[in-house]
């Protein structure tokens, strides 16, 4: 069975798969619901890692039933979207956050809309959605960030003209953190450091336990199903505090991600009880990543951890998200606290119209799969509050 057939066979009724050509240099694969009726307001859903447009499959019919034209693309580097290079040594600039923002803007335009009625970004889709709202509030007049708090833009130093200039120094913070984590007992490393490395793609793509088993354990371990997920805020971004994170975030220094998750593979009974990711659905992820590998997706981590590649974001130095915003996380998701203090900074400094921070009970990292009905209720209430349901945008 081809990967395309696997996707089609595992989609809920009312969702279609299609390609949209010429989108900021990409041919973009999207899933759509509510497409049968013209003139509906647009809901754009941006996934993260290692997800796909398919990750929104449980939520999409709920939003379509509420009157939206719901569109979820495979983002640049993922799935069936083409036009990007996957080699480790290929240029990283196309994976910069502003170009991913342009991808979203170009897709809205290609679909024949002037603005979205609902913009939702999960995981790595969260900073993309945040920059959409920062850069083009006319096109993205509200935003929902999920599972990855947005702590604001990189800023230029302020009011330094009369100060004695310090000599320019390279940013050594990542190296210092890596050294400090490696000095812990047992030695540790940050998952972003690992996922940015040359070896990560081969480890994830061809794990010893097999790709399907690896993905099953990875999704399980970061979900509300794993009883070990009891997250709490961390006091500071120090090695001792970060060491409280599960090993899938702060890994043992000598282990790969496939080795990290292998001991936690769910039992057969736990797999059978998992109704939010049944085996035919997981088979879609297995088929897609078996075909593409992970390097395209991993390029985002390499951009995220490289200050030089994020220098262009200083264009927005001092800028806040001034459209209505909402943050949604899972109560059992450590991602809310991986960057200590980010939730508070997001609410107090990075946004000016944040209506709240909602943490959904019974959900870990994969909220749209684990608790789609509760998520839909929050999204529709927020959209009603902000007038999104009336925003057809054409």
Architecture overview:
With 394 residues, the chain is an alpha/beta fold. The chain has two domains: 12-154 and 313-390, Rossmann fold; 173-297, no CATH class. The chain has 16 helices and ten strands. It has helices at residues 3-9, 60-65, 97-110, 125-135, 173-182, 191-195, 200-205, 211-221, 239-242, 257-261, 268-273, 279-292, 295-304, 342-350, 367-370, 372-386; strands at residues 15-23, 26-33, 42-46, 69-73, 118-122, 143-146, 188-190, 250-252, 325-330, 354-360. It has an eight-stranded mixed β-sheet with strand order 1-2-4-3-5-6-9-10, with helices on both faces. It starts with a helix and ends in an 8-residue tail after the last helix. The mean pLDDT is 93.
Helix and strand layout, with pairings?
Layout: H1 3-9, E1 15-23, E2 26-33, E3 42-46, H2 60-65, E4 69-73, H3 97-110, E5 118-122, H4 125-135, E6 143-146, H5 173-182, E7 188-190, H6 191-195, H7 200-205, H8 211-221, H9 239-242, E8 250-252, H10 257-261, H11 268-273, H12 279-292, H13 295-304, E9 325-330, H14 342-350, E10 354-360, H15 367-370, H16 372-386
Parallel strand pairs: 3-4, 3-5, 5-6, 6-9, 9-10
Antiparallel strand pairs: 1-2, 2-4, 7-8
Helix pairs in contact: 3-4, 8-12
Summary of the model, kept short:
The protein is built from 16 helices and ten strands.
Features:
alpha/beta; Rossmann fold; 2 domains; eight-stranded mixed β-sheet; two-stranded antiparallel ribbon; 16 helices; 10 strands; globular
CATH class of the largest domain: Alpha Beta
Query: How many runs of DSSP E, i.e. beta strands?
Result: 10
Which strand order do you get reading across the main beta sheet?
A: 1-2-4-3-5-6-9-10
Envelope shape: globular
Please, what is the CATH homologous superfamily of the largest domain?
Alpha/Beta hydrolase fold, catalytic domain
Q: Name the poorly predicted regions.
A: none
Outline the biggest β-sheet.
Answer: 8 strands, mixed
- List the helices and strands in order: HEEEHEHEHEHEHHHHEHHHHEHEHH
Determine the number of helices (DSSP H or I, runs of at least 4 residues): 16
User: How big a fraction of the residues is strand?
Assistant: 5-15%
CATH topology name of the largest domain, in short, is: Rossmann fold
Total domains: 2
Radius of gyration: 20 Å
Instruction: Supply the CATH architecture of the largest domain.
Output: 3-Layer(aba) Sandwich
**Which structural category do the helix and sheet elements fall into?**
alpha/beta
Mean pLDDT: 93
What gap, in angstroms, lies between the N and C termini?
A: 39 Å
What fraction, in percent, of the residue positions are helical?
25-40%
């Amino acid at each position: 069975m081809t990967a395309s057939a696997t996707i089609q066979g595992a989609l809920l009724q009312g969702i279609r798969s299609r390609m949209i050509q010429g989108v900021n240099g990409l041919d973009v694969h999207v899933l759509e619901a509510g497409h049968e009726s013209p003139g509906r307001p647009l809901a754009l859903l941006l996934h993260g890692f290692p997800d796909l447009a398919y990750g929104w499959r449980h939520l999409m019919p709920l939003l379509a039933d509420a009157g939206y034209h719901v569109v979820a693309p495979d983002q640049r580097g993922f799935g069936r979207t083409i036009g990007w290079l996957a080699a480790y040594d290929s240029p990283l600039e196309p994976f910069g956050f502003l170009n991913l923002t342009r991808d979203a803007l170009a897709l809205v335009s290609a679909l024949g809309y002037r603005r979205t009625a609902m913009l939702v970004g999960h995981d790595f889709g969260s900073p993309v959605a945040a920059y959409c709202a920062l850069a083009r509030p006319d096109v993205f007049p509200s935003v929902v960030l999920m599972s990855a708090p947005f702590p604001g833009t990189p800023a230029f130093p302020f009011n330094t003209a009369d100060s004695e200039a310090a000599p320019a120094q390279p940013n050594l913070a990542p190296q210092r953190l890596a050294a400090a984590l490696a000095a812990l007992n047992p030695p540790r490393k940050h998952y972003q450091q690992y996922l940015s490395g040359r070896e990560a793609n081969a480890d994830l793509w061809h794990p010893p336990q097999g790709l399907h088993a690896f993905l099953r354990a990875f999704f399980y371990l970061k979900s509300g199903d794993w009883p070990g997920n009891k997250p709490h805020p961390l006091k500071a971004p120090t090695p001792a505090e970060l060491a409280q994170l599960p090993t899938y975030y702060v890994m043992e220094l000598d282990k790969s991600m496939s080795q990290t998750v292998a001991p936690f593979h769910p039992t057969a009974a736990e797999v059978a009880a998992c109704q939010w990711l049944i085996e035919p659905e997981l088979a879609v992820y297995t088929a897609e990543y078996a075909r593409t590998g992970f390097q395209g997706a991993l390029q985002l981590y390499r951009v995220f951890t490289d200050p030089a590649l994020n220098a262009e974001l200083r264009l927005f130095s001092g800028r806040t998200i001034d459209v209505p915003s909402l943050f949604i996380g899972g109560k059992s998701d450590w991602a809310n606290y991986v960057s200590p203090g980010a939730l508070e900074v997001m609410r107090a400094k990075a946004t000016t119209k944040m209506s709240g921070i909602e943490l959904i009970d019974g959900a870990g990292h994969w909220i749209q799969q684990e608790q789609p009905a509760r998520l839909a209720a929050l999204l529709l209430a927020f959209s009603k509050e902000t007038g999104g349901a009336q925003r057809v945008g054409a």
